[in-house]
Amino acid sequence: MSDPGRWRVRDPYPPPGGRARALAIVLVLAVAGGLGYALFALPLQAEGLSGAVAGRIAQSGVSHPVTAVLLNFRGYDTWLELAVLVLALVGAWSLGLPPLGPEPAPGPVLDRLTRLILPLMILVAGYLLWVGAQAPGGAFQAGAVLGAAGVLLLLDGWRLPRGLAGWPLRLLLVLGVAVFAAVGVAAIALGGVLLQYPPGAAGGLILLIEAAATLAIGVTLAALFHGSRPEDDP
Amino acid sequence: MTAALWYALAGVGLFALGLYAMAVHRHLLRKILAFNVMGAGAFLVLAGLARRAPEGSADPVPHALVITGIVVTVAATALALVLMLRVREATGAAALPEDRPD
């Protein structure tokens, strides 16, 4: 009565069988064995950099060590990572996918769910952004929630109004990189080095950068899901 | 055997599963999914090994690296999906030239 093969997705390019598959299994097992051995060879106790972070966290402006590493001690990495997100979107746009057509009318479940859950998602994003200073959270988590909200909106058939698809959208996309750059350069002007926040103002500056990054990450993720340039939409 | 080591070994297992799928499957979407499983394995190794710090506090630097890595993975996956769509549009097949059945 129930045929298990009924639910299998047909693969138009079936993988090789027999010898090629056996060879792949042997090679992958060898790689896994080597990696597993390397893990066993590591010491069971390793402090890593947690001591160095704990020693300086009081000057970082936040009390959560991961946020302190991301936004202060290794802020340069995070800055360039925001640039990677924008670059991926530039790459996707330059490949010139055909414009996204109108979505078929959403079913009542998706439509009602989106209306119900969207304000909550914005609230959760704001909470995650704020709580990142003391507990797990921060710009990336908040931005991911905002991006998911954008994906829900797109699935529900919402499209960016034409007037916002040009430079207002681009302004939001580069907001994270731009605010990070502005704060970093301002630190030089105040007598420090690049991205060395003045002590005392670090907490506020990190919140400013994270707020801008949250918006930029959310909009970039939703734009990546959209795929083509929004101004080409019919 | 500590919990940290178990997590890291599970990460290696995930990585190996993804590597196998990447090698065996020909459809580009399956390759992209396999690449994501490999990435998840690498993140699990990093997050697990960070737990080796004494007095129960994890090393925050690998955790920050994982967050950075997840965002880069999402961006790379989106770009890969767009590339796959373009390949299919240009050649009619969502597979690399040497993997296409003729």
Task: Report on this structure.
The complex is a heterodimer of chains A (about 230) and B (about 100). Chain A is mostly helical and about 230 residues long. Chain A has one domain (about 60-230). Chain A is about 65% helix and about 0% strand. Chain A is built from 9 helices and no strands. Chain A has helices spanning about 20-40, 50-55, 65-75, 75-95, 110-130, 140-155, 165-175, 175-190, 200-225. Chain A is globular and about 65 Å long. Chain B has about 100 residues and is an all-alpha fold. Chain B contains 3 helices and no strands. The relative contact order of chain B is 0.15. Chain B has one domain: Helix Hairpins, CATH 1.10.287. At the A-B interface, helix 1, helix 2, helix 3, helix 4 and helix 9 of A face helix 1, helix 2 and helix 3 of B.
List the helices and strands and how they pair.
The complex is a heterodimer of chains A (234) and B (102).
Chain A: H1 19-41, H2 50-56, H3 65-73, H4 75-94, H5 108-131, H6 139-155, H7 167-173, H8 175-189, H9 202-226
Helix pairs in contact in A: 3-4, 4-8, 4-9, 5-6, 6-9, 8-9
Chain B: H1 3-24, H2 28-50, H3 60-91
Helix pairs in contact in B: 1-2, 2-3
Helicity range of chain A:
55-70%
Q: What is the count of structural domains of chain B?
A: 1
Briefly note the structural class of the backbone of chain A: mainly alpha
Distinct helical segment count of chain B: 3
Please give the radius of gyration of chain B in angstroms.
Answer: 17 Å
Number of strands of chain A: 0
Tell me which CATH architecture of chain B applies here. Orthogonal Bundle
The CATH class name of chain B reads Mainly Alpha
As residue ranges, the low-confidence spans of chain B are none
Radius of gyration of chain A (CA) equals: 23 Å
Query: What would you call the structural class of chain B?
Result: mainly alpha
- Name the average pLDDT of chain B: 90
Q: Unreliable segments of chain A (pLDDT under 50, ≥5 consecutive)? A: none
